[in-house]
Fold this protein.
Amino acid sequence: MVKSVFWCRFTKPFLHDGPLIVLPADASAKDYFNLLFPTALWKTIVSETNHYIQQKGKPFVETFDAEMKAFIGLTMAMGIHRLPRIENYWNSLWVLNIRQFTQIFTLKRYWFLWSSIHLVDNTQCVQRDHPDHDRLFKVRPLILKLNDTFPEHYRPQQNISVDESMVRFKGRS
């Protein structure tokens, strides 16, 4: 089983804390996002998604980097602009319809990518009853890549505060 190496890298104080790569003042949010999610990660997502589509015998319409980035972007936007159902983003009613979504994807293509997105080859998965079974197998490549890219681009200061809403609490307030 692979252990997370993210926190053990921060046991010693560094000479420089904070952002390690400073982008120009006119850099977009996309530029910062691309620092953390490099091209190699997108290539892995696209190749494994295409591989999964072929394995399942679905009608093969190959996906590519730009489409996968658009898919992830729309999915993230759904977290900001919430509607009761995913289908509502493509609804023809003026009150629900979000024109930008319909310009990027059809609902059918969005659902196709939603059901097909993969990070790993399922045939490589170890059975659940095996001692080497990794419960995070399907997202392990993403975790490992983020464990590499986050420390490359940002080093937290020595004192870190955890927001109380991030910690599970069962008591009374």
